[in-house]
Design brief:
Elements (H helix, E strand, L loop, with lengths): L1 E2 L3 H12 L4 E7 L9 E6 L3 H9 L17 E4 L1 H10 L3 H6 L3
Antiparallel strand pairs: 1-2, 2-3, 3-4
Length: 100
């Protein structure tokens, strides 16, 4: 279950993906499979090869891409890896906003 984001943020994330960019969306999240995680960052791109190459830079395997028929395929970034990638991408506002 996702919460803590506004419709406009979701719209902007989708627009960035539609433009062929790697886009990031962080939100609060509850999933019983990951009880230690309270947030997730979705790193998405319409170009799956570009997304896979980007992910490989961070040790993410292309099999981990959540492939979506709607075109908004993404990696789910969780835990320590989430914060590490956000830092390397310079997305400190995500870290501060969600107290990561």
């Amino acid at each position: 279950m996702a919460f803590g984001i506004h419709r406009q943020e979701l719209k902007e994330w989708k627009q960035q993906i539609d433009a062929g960019n790697i886009a990031f969306l962080t939100h609060y999240w509850v999933d019983e499979r990951f009880p230690h995680c309270r947030t997730v960052t979705k790193a998405g791109c319409r170009d799956l090869e570009k997304l896979a190459r980007w992910g490989a830079e961070y040790g993410l395997r292309k099999e981990w891409i959540d492939r979506r028929e709607d075109g908004y395929s993404h990696f789910d970034l969780l835990g320590d890896r989430q914060k590490e990638i956000l830092q390397k991408e310079g997305l400190y506002s995500h870290i501060e906003r969600f107290n990561l």
